[in-house]
Amino acid sequence: MNICAVCGKELQDSTLIEWEAMPGIAWHADCDWTSDGRAWFEAQRRANPRLNRQVELRTMGLEQQCQECGHEQSVNPTAIGMDPSPWDVNCTACGEYWPDAVNASRNQDIVSALWRLRRDFELGQWDVGHEDDLSVLDSHLPTTSRHSCALGGQFSFTARVRCQRCAAMLPVRSWFHYGYQKR
């Protein structure tokens, strides 16, 4: 029998919340938004650096300040949100990104591979071979929409999110985020 980590009641196959950084632990979605649920989860984040990293890297509108020029902008993880099927790809030289470069409905194998790589990045289990895996996936990007930027860059799964003002790599140093201007 599986037990909710928040309320202690039996877990059904209904809506559950689970994080890869906490294997074997789940809780009811209804418990997640209670004050006890929020307090429990925040305590888990403080106690588990891998969970905290994973949650932060999945945060929409994660604030970033460029270490080169001081520009402040936000970043979003790609393929998360209301429609998690499209995957955005960054430019190798500037802060532009290609929205919806691949879509899970048409490129399920590619997006599954990207999700596996993202999970390893989020959990801090990244090594040089993972970037090689990203490079191999570039051959699957549509060539009709691929273009280069004024700085000579190309859209690539190996490109990390960059500052939109000066093109320096942002502190999140992620292949799985895209940057946008804060309002």
Present the secondary structure layout.
Blueprint: E1 16-17, E2 27-28, H1 29-32, H2 35-47, H3 49-57, E3 62-65, E4 72-77, E5 86-90, E6 97-103, H4 108-122, H5 128-137, E7 177-180
Antiparallel strand pairs: 1-2, 3-4, 4-7, 5-6
Question: Summed up, what is this model?
Answer:
This protein has 183 residues and is of the alpha+beta class. It has helices at 29-32, 35-47, 49-57, 108-122, 128-137; strands at residues 16-17, 27-28, 62-65, 72-77, 86-90, 97-103, 177-180. Helix content is 28%, strand content 16%.
Task: Summarize the structure in words.
With 183 residues, the protein is an alpha+beta fold. It folds into 2 domains: 16-57, no CATH class; 62-180, no CATH class. The protein has helices at residues 29-32, 35-47, 49-57, 108-122, 128-137, and strands spanning 16-17, 27-28, 62-65, 72-77, 86-90, 97-103, 177-180. β3 and β4 form a beta hairpin. α2 (35-47) crosses α3.
